[in-house]
Description:
This protein is mostly helical. The protein has one domain (15-92). The protein contains three helices and two strands. Strands 1-2 form a two-stranded antiparallel ribbon. The longest helix has 33 residues, at 15-47.
Amino acid sequence: xxxxxTSAANEPKDEFLMKIAQKRVGFQKHAIVYxxxxxxxxxxxxxxxxxxxxSLWVGWGIGLGxxxxxxxxxxxxxxxAEREYERLLKEKR
Length: 93
């Protein structure tokens, strides 16, 4: 198993789990920016008498949704690669 040690606690970390954690934190930051930017732009549009930019909310929301799927749907790449490797070995024989 690939592990690295942290300097803070000197306990091993699973690199695969760290990669998942980083994806999730990236999604969470993306969601916060989405909410702040869309809200501010919508408020500015309402104050100036313009329409609320629903296309901004929907368009960016679709992208955010795909980002969330990538961050939270569990897909064990290592296990999938091992299964594919075994399948290729059987084909070769």
